Amino acid sequence: MAQTKIIKELRVLQIVPQIKFGGVERGVLDIHRYLQGKKINSYILCESINNELIKKSELKYIYTTEGIKFKNIIHYFGLNKKLKWIIDAHKINLIHISSRAPAFIFYNLIRKHSEIKLITGFHNPYKGGVFKRYYNSFLLKGDLIIANSNFTKNYINKNFNISAKVVAIPRGIDLDYFNPKKYKSTNKNLIKKKYKIPENNIIASIPSRFAYWKGHKELIEFLNEKINVLPKNLKIIFFVNKNNQKEKELLISLCSDELSKRIITLNYTKDISDIYFISDLVISNSNKAEGFGRTIAESLAMNVVAIGSNLGGVREQLYNFDRKLLFDGSNKTSFYKALKYALNRIEMRNFNSRRYIVDNYSLKKMLDETLKNYYS
Question: Does pTM top 0.85 for this prediction?
Answer without folding.
Answer: yes
